[in-house]
Amino acid sequence: MVSASYLEKTTVSAIDLLHRWLKHRISSQGLTWLDEKIDQVKSGVNTSMFFSAFSAVPRYTGKNDLQLTLEELEAASTARTGWFPSYWSVDQAARTLLVLSLPQSNEEKYVRTLERVFTAADMGELIALYQALPLLAYPEKFRTRAAEGVRSNMTAVFNAVALRNPYPAEYLDDVAWNQIVLKALFVGSPLHLIQGLDRRANPELATMLVDYAHERWAAYRTVSPELWRLVGRFANNAMLADLERVIQANDPVEQAAGAIALAECPLPDAQQLLARYPNLQAQIQAGHLTWNSLTLSL
Known about the structure:
Elements: H1 4-23, H2 28-43, H3 47-61, H4 70-79, H5 90-100, H6 107-120, H7 123-131, H8 143-151, H9 155-162, H10 167-171, H11 174-187, H12 203-218, H13 237-247, H14 252-264, H15 268-274, H16 278-285, H17 291-295
């Protein structure tokens, strides 16, 4: 979790950045409309106006990709650790700007207003809301909403919560976190885009993932090599047989994944098994074969 003072500074910085980005990416008419709505939202006079403006955003901004530069992405990360809006669109940025303009002095009213937006939102609006989670005031109040996003049957909504988003790793418990990882595998979303993936790895998740792999194998279906990233550190003797199967696969990416997982396993038998593959072991020891390098092959 992050401190309230940090979040307050983040809000100010994020508002400034979002407005600066949009100034160069939407029409002058669209920007004028947005600025008028921001001023009205800040006044806190009429929440129904906020709902209406939030819904109407794309009509005034369009839906083009934001296409941030490397410098702009670095500014985002500086403003809020883990904020990575590289795949945002202009309407998502504008909607986030409206949300961040809501008065925050009354916690109950602030949370109630956003809960109403979540409840009535369509898919596009939900994506914007979930992407904005790490920027919200009182973020701990939205854990249940985040968990609902994880359970969504809309992959785009799930990805908005799970991928390139620091909120889940910071605020969700292990049950919800483990569900994110399993769901990502189920819908085919890349695990390496889940922030905090290695830090939040846990023994219960490792067991769940091995069980999932067994189910896939039994159905003659493939298993994502990324799955083993979360198993090696917690592998027991029974799981070593699974890692041996992976390192013996015909696919070189699977072989590499099995090797890295074995290298991370503290069991002596794991190191003995890895030693049977000296080329892979040497690449790992030299730092040439890592999970990060492996993702480039996926």
